[in-house]
Structures are given as C-alpha cells and as structure tokens.
C-alpha cells in the first residue's frame, strides 16, 4: 500500500471520527462474513456506521484526533462503530456481544471522552435518543400544564369569593 493511499485512509477515518464524536473500537475477528453483514445492517438501521480498520491506520488517526489511549486497545482484527447516537452504538454492540460471544468491545470515545467497557455498559441500558427526548418533552409538558392550572386557579378562587360575598349580601 502506497504512502499516499495510507494518508488518504487516515484522513478518511479521522474525518469520520471527528464528525461523529462517538465511536467504539471492537474486535470483530471471530465473525463470519454473514454475521459481519448482519451487524452492519443493524448499525445502518439505527443510522450508525461500522468500518473495519487496519490497526496501523487507526493508530495514526487516533493519535491525530487526540485519543492516544485507544492505541493500547489495538490488537487482532478491529472495527470502529460510529455515529451521532452513542446509546444506539453501545446497545447494538453490547447486545450483539452477549448474543454471539464473538465480538469484544475494546474501548470507546463518547462526546470526545475516552471510556472503558465498564463505563459503556450503563449507557447501553438507557433508552434511545428518541426515548430520552420523549421523556424530556413529557417533563417539560407537565411543568407547563401545572403552571397553566395554577394560573387558572387564581381567577377561579376570586370568582368563588365574589359569589360568596354576593350570596351573603343577598341572604
């Protein structure tokens, strides 16, 4: 492989990782071609991506984006899963790892911060991005409804007081 081609591959990987800011390095060496295609399909369905990486290319790219700590995790055949939703990436990989026992998550970078596999597990237990946004919307909507009902309570009490005064004067 020529130096120019290596440089281009490093730049491509570096660009993908910088654009997404969330990626997980994992060993995929034990997967068959069919299993690898199935895993790629799961990532595509979740709007995430997966690429097999050459260790020397990945090491240079990790150095250039400032996550040299991942270089210690480089051995055997590796792939990188990346995308905008770190929860989806973690769920797919850790579920697949438990199901097949053929992949091994080595390290992760979430929002630019290096994480261990143990730190990644709680992330996989969270609801997906859409679920979290729905929960946030529910909380915000609940606050708004309570605020509006509180505002309506003041005129209602005032009207009730006026009616009580009117009944007292008439009676």
What percentage of the residues does DSSP assign to strands (E)?
15-25%
Tell me, what's the shape?
A: elongated
List the total number of helices: 6
Question: Which percent range fits the helix content?
Answer: 55-70%
Q: In terms of per-residue confidence, which ranges show pLDDT below 50 for 5 or more consecutive residues?
A: none
Q: Which structural class should the secondary elements be placed in?
A: alpha+beta
Tell me the number of strands. Answer: 5
Strand line-up across the major sheet:
2-3-1-4-5
Largest beta-sheet characterization: 5 strands, antiparallel
Radius of gyration: 26 Å
Helix-strand pattern: HEHEHEHEEHH
> Mean pLDDT, as a whole number?
84
Whole-Å distance between the termini? 102 Å
Model description:
The protein has 171 residues and is of the alpha+beta class. Helices cover 63% and strands 15% of the residues. The chain contains 6 helices and 5 strands. Strand 4 and strand 5 form a beta hairpin. The longest helix has 42 residues. The chain is elongated.
Question: In summary, what is this structure?
Answer:
Helix content is 63%, strand content 15%.
Question: Can you tag this structure with a few keywords?
Answer:
171 residues; alpha+beta; five-stranded antiparallel β-sheet; 5 strands; elongated
């Amino acid at each position: 492989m020529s130096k120019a081609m290596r440089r281009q591959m490093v730049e491509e990987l570096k660009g993908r990782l910088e654009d997404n800011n969330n990626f997980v390095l994992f060993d995929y060496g034990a997967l068959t071609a069919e299993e690898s295609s199935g895993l790629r399909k799961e990532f595509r369905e979740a709007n995430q991506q997966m690429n097999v990486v050459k260790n020397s290319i990945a090491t240079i790219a990790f150095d250039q984006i400032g996550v040299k700590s991942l270089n210690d995790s480089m051995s055997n055949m590796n792939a990188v899963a990346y995308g905008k939703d770190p929860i989806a990436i973690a769920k797919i990989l850790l579920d697949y790892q438990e199901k097949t026992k053929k992949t091994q998550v080595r390290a992760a970078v979430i929002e630019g911060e290096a994480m261990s596999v143990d730190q990644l597990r709680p992330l996989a237990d969270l609801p997906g991005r859409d679920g979290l946004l729905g929960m946030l919307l529910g909380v915000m909507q609940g606050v708004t409804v309570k605020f509006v009902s509180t505002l309506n309570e003041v005129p209602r009490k005032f009207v009730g007081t006026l009616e009580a005064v009117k009944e007292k004067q008439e009676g």
